[in-house]
Write a structure and sequence with these properties.
With about 350 residues, this protein is of the alpha/beta class. The protein has ten helices and 15 strands. Helix 4 runs parallel beside helix 5, helix 5 packs antiparallel against helix 10 and helix 8 packs across helix 10. It is globular.
Length: about 350
Amino acid sequence: MTEKLRLCVVGAGRVAESHLPAIQALAERIELAALVARDERRLLEKAARWHVSQTYTSYEQALQDERIDAVLLLLPHDLHADYTIRALRAGKHVLVEKPMAMNDAEAARMTEEAERNGKVLMIGQSRRFFAPVMESIRQIRAKTIGEVININALLLAHMDKPAVEWWKDKSRIGGFIIPLWGSHILDYILWAYDELPETVYAQGLSNNPNWDGEDEAAISLRFSGGRMANLLLSFNAGCRPTDEGGLTANRIWSTRNSIYERYIIGTNGLIHLRDEQELFVNNVKIDTEEEHVSNFAWQIKEFADAIRERREPLASGREVRRVVQVIDAVFASMNENRLIRLNKEAAH
């Protein structure tokens, strides 16, 4: 690899507007080497705006470009596995947006391909990369509140219509609120406990005809040693002013105008995360300072550093595969109305 990581961004849709400024903020260590999109008009507009000299409408042609070290995949969920595996086989490192895959069978193939080719595979669990969130995990590891015995998470938000057309299709998105936001919360819980749960029980319903998947969900996880976690998720909570597309302020809803809380209960205290912005330990607010201009910049820096240092990144494919396994169990529990027991050996 040259001094700068030469990164190719694949996908020029809504989420690219979060990633491209982050890459620009890291220009001293990352070169935005190429941009790939099927829509040539949108591709050229984005390339001009972000000063990208090389563009491709063909993913295969981009993968043949020897100047590219790594790809950032910003694609519909059902394309994650295929596009990741093709990049790894072409000798590229991969950072792919969450959720990692549509199911564990896909996630397993992705991690195996990364190991086979000796490449870094990182998943875009971008909600990890805030100082209060990082500090909460440090406090958990330091046993500031004793041993964690329960984590309770609450997300109450409002969405009228999906931000993009493919979100309507359950076969492409893999559900609705669970892959969109439950994947972030499940990732945090598994990161905190650092293990798969023993059992999963879940219920979910769809109330809005504008999409196929679930917009209400309740998930209960039981971990070893009698520890547990509970999630309550809703995209029907209250009414917010929306634009003609049904989205607050011309974009997907923000947790800043929703209720997003996590309570980590220990044998000797309580950690409270309010959104990703505020952290309280035993009712005392902990002041933290963000290390980067955005969580996406922090995430991409971690990806580049892991490649340069030849190490596994935070939110590696191997680690985040556990989230996919739990999501599989969540949907199995919802569909079959029963408790699901997880095979922990499957994660290794």
